[in-house]
Amino acid sequence: MWIWYNKEHMERIDDLQLKGLKIIQDTDLFCFGTDAVLLADFVKLKKNSRVADLGTGMGILPLLLFGRRQDITVKGLELQKALYDLACRSVELNGLEANIEMINGDICSAAKLLGTGFDIVVSNPPYEKKTAGVGSECESHRIARFEVAVTLRGLCAAAGSLLQTGGRFYMIHRASRLAEIFEELKGCRLQPKEVRFIHSYVTSEPARVLLSAMKDGGEGLRILPPLIVHERDGSETEEVRRIYCRDGQQTGDGNGTG
């Protein structure tokens, strides 16, 4: 459900169908998609968790995570000023200033800007390497899709600097880059702990992967059951409908799905 309210700037208010939460988006900028929703559902939240979101965009992950557990606090870091401004307005729209704080700045300076000792760090980062080419996309889309502002190594280093020992880093990324992701995580004292592959259909290869890593964690990796997005007829699977709160279903209870 959405409501246009500023056609000049192509802004709209989207109803997240979760705890009455809404988000302001600008279709001229990079809007959130399915990957952010799946990542938010994957995160295991505990009582009073301190969470940091690296590259928060319009603030979708902080809102979805708060919708699942209302005793958490979240700091979202966003480089692009236009997206940061929208995220701040969404926080105000929902009256969540006491739980969610947005910061405008570079992921490479995350610890300086956000502080340290977080229980959880999340990120839905750019999937493509800078060398993949950026085509003719607008700046907002280039930064969101390509590693022009932060590399995978820089992202992992930032997550490691923010987390306390035993804290968890949750990320969604291209399945084809998993070996590289593991290498970078381990180089930043982040031990991969859980992996869940995302398939468009049960018969298709995974295009995305959800994963968690623990700071200074021991060895041991769980491969979780795959997440299938579509049935053979193209409709959403029951799990995806639950995640999206279709038919009035509520997503999770703060304990995650993996």
UniProtKB/TrEMBL annotation:
It is an enzyme of class 2 (transferase). It holds the Pfam family MTS. CDD domains: AdoMet_MTases. Residues 38-132 form the Methyltransferase small domain. InterPro entries: DNA_methylase_N6_adenine_CS, SAM-dependent_MTases_sf, Small_mtfrase_dom, tRNA_Adenine-N(6)_MTase. GO terms for biological process: methylation. The keyword Transferase applies. Keywords: Methyltransferase, Transferase. GO terms for molecular function: N-methyltransferase activity; nucleic acid binding; S-adenosylmethionine-dependent methyltransferase activity. Its EC number is 2.1.1.223. It comes from the Bacteria. PANTHER family: TRNA1(VAL) (ADENINE(37)-N6)-METHYLTRANSFERASE. This is tRNA (Adenine37-N(6))-methyltransferase TrmN6. It comes from Christensenella hongkongensis.
